[in-house]
Amino acid sequence: MAEKDTMQRVVITGMGLVCPLGNDVETTWRAMLAGKSGMAKTTVFDASTFPSTFDAEVKEFDPAKYVKSWELHKHSARASGFVLAAAVEACRQARIDIETSRPTDGVDRARLGVYLGAGEGAVDSDVFFAALAQAWDPAKNQMDWLKWAEIASGRMDAMRELEQEPNMPAAHLAMLTGARGPMRSCLTACAASTQAVGEAMMLIRRGDADVIIAGGVHSMIHPLGLTGFNRLTALSTRNDSPQTASRPFSANREGFVLGEGAAILILEFLSSAKKRGVQILAEVIGYGSSSDAFRVTDMHEEARGPIQAMTAALADAGITYKDVDYISTHGTSTIENDLIETKAIRAVFKDKAKSIPVSSAKSMFGHLIGAAGAAELITCVLAIRDGIVPPTMNLTEPDPQLDLDYVPNTPRRCGVDVAMKESFGFGGQNNVVIVRRYKDTD
Amino acid sequence: MRSARVVITGLGAISPLGLTVSEMWQGLCAGKCGIGKITAFDPTGFPCKLAGQVPDYKIQQYVPKSHRKAVKLMCRDIELAVVAANEALTDSGLVTKGIDPENINVNPERMAINLAAGFISCDLVELAPAVAASITDGQFDIHKWGRQGLELVPPLWLLKYLPNMLACHVGIIHDIQGPSNTITCAEAGAHIAISEASQVIARGDSDIALAGGAESKVNPMNVVRQCLLKRAATENNDEPASACRPFDSTARGSVLGEGAGIVVLENLENAHTRGAKIYAELIGTGQSSSVNPVYEHLEPDGKGLRIAIEKALAEAQIEPAALDLVIPHGTGIAGDDRAEAAAIEAALGRAGKGVPVWPTKSMLSNTGTASGALDVIAAVCAMTEGKIPAAKNCQNKAAGCNLNIVTKPIQKKIRYALCCSYTYGGQTAAVILSHFDAETEV
Question: What are the contacts of B33-40 at 24+ separation with CB within 8 A?
């Protein structure tokens, strides 16, 4: 399988991004090269008394500006709006017709698929908390289900509840594009959208689709989401300085910054892209997936799972570590991740480990959770295109245990032909995708 | 096409009909109904008071000592998956760390897992004390929640409800270190998980995979949601055994349930080498999507489901008339059943008109992401036994439904069986199994 049949080559022909640094690809990229931060005080709800009072939110976003037939999508959860906008941008670049029953883009709808790493929509907090508050009897320590059912049935909105289901973002993309090919949604925590891109590539290679709209979407910026991460003590609590709070690989790192957004990559059979005459942005050449099978709460100390996923991706791509020019890390800014990830890179990249540039986009746009991997994969494609590697910001205090070249604080000009994107999720999910500068070798 | 043949070598099921595959099959053959009045909470105030609940079990019995502490991090969906995985592996003869650490006969790195998980509702009773501590003047107070309510939420609370934790707990117990994915396509999830897992094996990324789905829909949040969406049966609360009536003229909605179905998929060569018992071969899978503005339902002509079935038939390289059994999704929601019947009739055509169709949800209830896997297991049992039990509660077929619903048990050799599913949101899937004859194997 590793020896690439030209028939099996899968390329990227469009990209779209909505994230805390911008609502499109180019705005975000410019902000990253300027080392900007997407973090600020939480505005989606009142988090002023939470342990973390800030996050990385999508700003000044109106989904109806991107989608003509917004009426069809009006019940969408916040995050589905992000993914619709990202898909509109990506489809435009890849010249895939949307919102039409008579597409002329040359893509057979039965061979157009969707594969998202997508999170659940936000709980309807007002109703959720109100129903609990009124139906719980603290004296008896029990729930009055009769009362709860009355409040919940009376106040919950059917469509708003439905839109929380994790398969709904994919449903909206099916309506947007008329796609009738493989339609999938996965949720492997913070590794989900890297997995979605990897599995989408596999579906195309296998011949199940010509084009797949792949990527991720997630927002956990709601009271229960922030509560959950705060209780795990996974978040930075640097409330006095949100913009410098995400500091991957820095000695004084103390947690990630919760972000939100959506990222879409249009994956396409090379032959289809050529036939349609669309621009090829890069080639997806390798994918590897593994599980730690260690603990629900911690990563394996010796980075067993990440090493296996990286090794599998290199083998799938038919290259060695020597061929990789840049690593877009998972780089969350938690004490554990950054240490284990550094160990994994050291183990896989051996003599090259200390010289290969590696950086973390999360230092700027935060942790987009399920959408993180696809968003960061887009930055890999841009690094290849522009010959410039985005920095790891806020790396002012090097950690003596972490000795790689993290591209601290300023972007770096350097040629990149092959870039590796790695993503690791709670529970020991590891997914790695490798992209390469497209070269026409036919 | 497929590079390696994939067979089923182990079955595990926990369902409203029992804690094992054999209890489920005996129940189906006896026409037993697993639906009853909800006991998980007081359903008095809910429009639907019925559900398919699994019999009592002790989760500790299914979890090895080494992982016993993690039991408190398992929501019910996770528990169900753990129970079914245990049976499937035991049945297959594969000895993992979780089955017997002294006699392991598998390579953990060559094992994969792909489970479909639902939109897991959090346990309201667990959160209630935190909410109760956050009340000012009878109203929920987000400031108080941030200051003190939040502290009462268990530290690892979030990890209980991440969909990928089903696969993670099972993976940790049985030391599954290969590719791991969690499909979140609601009621179509299990068929998608099974087909993706088979592709992971076919492309050589693993030799063995656990695949299927697990979900408990029997919780207050979900019951209210399904009632609001008018998917749940609310008129037959006094007659549990006849409440769910797929394809019947008096069908009035689905009855929700809970369960888990997990199969062991294996590379044929691997199965041969270790002399495994082979139940069936997976010979075709297909996937598509409904494209419907009313996306909580299947589109009226069932086109997306038809495409999925046609793709599966094409991949299996069989004619529709060769099918001996179809297990439809058949929820008992009249409009969806009508659309599904249209899809099956269109895909099977005139030649496939007489193929026996056996809906199972009248007995098993709608177990969400588990349902597709339970159906695959039921199809395998039918093949093994050469028998199709009678469908229940379809006395008078709904107008427009021309399916050959099995009303009396049929004894016959079943060579090819089709299972299909779809979900609110639109994803559709189909799986075709072939009886495995060692003698006639080519």
Answer: B33/B240, B33/B241, B33/B362, B33/B363, B33/B392, B34/B257, B34/B363, B34/B364, B34/B365, B35/B240, B35/B241, B35/B243, B35/B244, B35/B255, B35/B257, B35/B363, B35/B365, B36/B240, B37/B237, B37/B240, B38/B218, B38/B223, B40/B218, B40/B219
Q: What is the pLDDT of residues B195-242, one digit of tens each?
A: 999 999 999 999 999 999 999 999 999 999 999 999 999 999 999 999
Tokens of B176: 């599954």
A1: burial class by Cβ within 10 Å (0-12, 13-18, 19+)?
Answer: middle
Of A19, A222, A330, A380, the active-site residue reads: A330
Has this prediction a pTM greater than 0.90? Answer: yes
CB pairs under 8 A between A and B: 287
Spell out the domain ranges in chain A: 12-123+164-436, 126-153
| Three-class DSSP category at B403 | coil
Would you call A367 a catalytic residue per the annotation?
A: yes
Third-level CATH fold of A12-123+164-436: Peroxisomal Thiolase; Chain A, domain 1 (3.40.47)
Give pLDDT tens digits for A159-201: 999 999 999 999 999 999 999 999 999 999 999 999 999 999 9
Q: What is the domain class of B6-121+161-435 according to CATH?
A: alpha beta
**Nearest CA-CA distance, residue A231 and chain B, Å:** 5
| Chain B interface, best mutation among A112, A224, A237, A296, by max B CB count within 10 A | A296
Q: How many CB atoms lie within 10 A of CB B165?
A: 29
A190, A218, A222, A300: which is the annotated catalytic residue? A190
Q: Is B98 on the interface with A (CB under 8 A)?
A: no
Residue B221: closest CA among A226, A118, A145: A145
